[in-house]
Amino acid sequence: MIFGRSERGKPPVEPVTLKILVAGGFGVGKTTLVGAVSEIKPLRTEELLTEAGRPVDDTSGVEGKHTTTVAMDFGRITLREDLVLYLFGTPGQDRFWFLWDELATGSLGAVVLADTRRLEDCFAAVDYFERRSIPFVVGVNCFEDAARYPADTVRQALDLDPEVPVVLCDARDRESVKEVLIGVVQHAMASASDRRQALTT
């Protein structure tokens, strides 16, 4: 960069920054997803699970989980020179849901991460975004020991509207996560376009 201009003589691009939430049940892989794709060291607010929390933290199906997010995860990914996504991972347990409204403010859309072994755990997140008309994509995190189901089967089980995208993903894999995030941006843009058309007709 020379005097605020790029070496090619073009002014530097001021990127559009968009906020995306990553939500879902306890132990579904939200922290892993943010960490897999973030180009900066992700900010994490994880604490060890304790005996005191055992009655309220259901670890059945995720017995190997020893920590939990108590505020949020934060990461950043540049999709293009002019498009940067800020990722906010929400805490999964009921007692931290009061943070969701603050995190959702100004968000473009959301990923609801689902685990087919505990599909009911993402009902609350689906309901949250539906009630607030926040566009979302359901990402089915394909755990190695979980049964695989077609996207349409998951859609029916969650009683989703036909326009809500359902994608199979691996929260550990950067390219897989990028595809999910691109899907959120595309779905949010399509939803905004539909709303504009509805207002003009």
Structure report:
Helices cover 28% and strands 26% of the residues. It is globular and about 55 Å long. The model is unreliable at 1-5 (pLDDT under 50). Strands 2-3-4-1-5-6-7 form a 7-stranded mixed β-sheet, sandwiched between helices. The longest helix has 27 residues, at 174-200. The chain is an alpha/beta fold and 201 residues long. Strand 6, helix 4 (151-158) and strand 7 (166-169) form a beta-alpha-beta unit.
Features:
201 residues, alpha/beta, 7-stranded mixed β-sheet, 28% helix, 26% strand, globular, disordered N terminus
Please write out the topology.
Elements: E1 16-24, H1 30-37, E2 43-48, E3 67-80, E4 83-89, H2 100-104, E5 109-114, H3 123-131, E6 136-141, H4 151-158, E7 166-169, H5 174-200
Parallel strand pairs: 1-4, 1-5, 5-6, 6-7
Antiparallel strand pairs: 2-3, 3-4
Strand order of the largest sheet: 2-3-4-1-5-6-7
Number of helices: 5
Low-confidence stretches: 1-5
Query: What best-fitting shape do the alpha-carbon axes yield?
Result: globular
Order of helices and strands: EHEEEHEHEHEH
In round numbers, the mean pLDDT is 84
Strands, total number: 7
Determine Rg (CA atoms, Å): 18 Å
- The separation of the N and C termini measures 47 Å
Helix content: 25-40%
Q: What portion of the residues fall into strands of 2 or more residues?
A: 25-35%
Largest sheet: 7 strands, mixed
Structural class: alpha/beta
